[in-house]
Amino acid sequence: MVYQIAGVPHQVRYETGKVFVEITWDRRSGEINEFIGLTPRKGECEDGLSLSDLLAMEGADRPESKMPFQVYDNHRLQPFVEKLAEDTRAFAQPALAGDRMSAEEVAGQ
Question: What's the pTM?
Fold first, then answer.
């Protein structure tokens, strides 16, 4: 399921029964962030981990592991969103698969 978060035009959310991926863009700061997390069970709080944190945990030697991309022009977002997708495919497979141990390990850091 893919949907835009109500009332928030600069966020996109992808969700399965196990995990969610949320991409946000703050027009003022220019920051593009991606959060990956387990879909909360009834009574649990949603807790997403930033892609930057996952990259740092994996020891990825990428500038975006230290700080999110900053893009101030919405017409220039596409290459940065594509880079997020590339990093997600390369480094976030356990989180995307809904690996609870992976999520808890990062949350404990």
Answer: 0.79
